[in-house]
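Memo to structure team: turn this sequence into structure tokens by end of day. - J.P.
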Amino acid sequence: MKLKIKLSVIIIAIVIIIVVSIAAIQLNQASKISLSLSKRSALYLARQRA
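Reply from structure team:
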């Protein structure tokens, strides 16, 4: 019974690590996309005013 509990805890920990890693990767990609769009928008506005 104790081995089963240990295995369950290990599996839950691995799943949590995977979920946090995926969330961090997606957040990083979203940040890059947002920054890129902001730069494009600023450049577009600068060209419109020139």
